[in-house]
Amino acid sequence: MVPTPYSVSALWEASLRDLPGRRPSFFTGSLFVLAFIGLLAWWAAGSAMEDIWRVALPLVILLPAAVASVVLLRARIGSRKRGAALTRLTVLLQVAFSALFLLVLSGYAFRIALDVGVRFAQWPRALMLGLMGLYGATALAALLWAPRSLPRSPEHDELAAKRGGKWLPWVMGCQGFLISTGVFVGVWFLHDESPWEYALVIGIAALASTLLLFFGILIVHRFALLALCPIPPGLLHKSNSQVE
Into how many domains does the chain fold? Predict the structure, then answer.
């Protein structure tokens, strides 16, 4: 679905409206959260030294993006002109960081769910394959939904909001239902051979991974639109006026 000029304008307007509320501490705090979840994923994988590099690699990739975002955000806060180039680059880096943050966090959670299910709970392989299938189906649903999540004209603002309110709960509810059913089936097959805590960890991690993946892909789609389309005339001046 090809975006309309109104879709691009609405997306840029929302991004510029959120920009003044973003603080540098967001990026450093996000990295600490990722490092903690990454350590949990490393532990679930077996705490082998050869695996720690795979777990740490996303953090190494995200660190330059976080540092650049902090530098640009501080530069824009201290700048009087707030030109289009600086503002556009700041927004793009922040949106890219947010998308990568959600996707990496999703990957960590998914790794925890799989490794706990295989190594600790010793669940049937079919359930783990089903979880992988659900993860892929979530990615496909997000790709199909992303172009339809933006309004195409002023008349579609209310329609887009209603559509999101109607379908998003169903998407999340289906994920939760399928994951809870899989957890129940796994516990039923094992007949109390593994502690219930493992089932709780698997369920929470699997649900978190699919939801984070869904919204991460939505933000990737928005980043692509922002990267391909310049800031519409008038929006930058309006944003700077609101900040001042």
Answer: 1
Rg, Å, the chain Cα set = 21
Range of the domain at 36: 5-243
pTM (2 d.p.): 0.84
Residue 86: burial class (beta carbons within 10 Å; 0-12, 13-18, 19+) = middle
SS (H, E, C) 169-211: HHHHHHHHHHHHHHHHHHHHHHCCCCCHHHHHHHHHHHHHHHH
- Which amino acid, residue 60? V
What's the CA gap between 221 and 3, in Å, rounded?
11
pLDDT digits (tens, 9 = 90+) for 11-55: 888 888 877 777 778 888 888 888 888 888 888 877 766 677 777
**Contact status, residue 55 vs residue 34, Cβ threshold 8 Å:** no
CA-nearest of 80, 84, 81 to 92 is: 84
Cβ-count burial of 229 within 10 angstroms (0-12 exposed, 13-18 middle, 19+ buried)?
A: middle
How far, CA to CA in Å, does 47 sit from each of 40, 54, 118? Answer: 9, 12, 15
**Chain position carrying tokens 């579609």:** 156
In Å, what is the CA distance from 164 to each residue of 8, 57, 145, 161, 187? 18, 35, 9, 5, 34
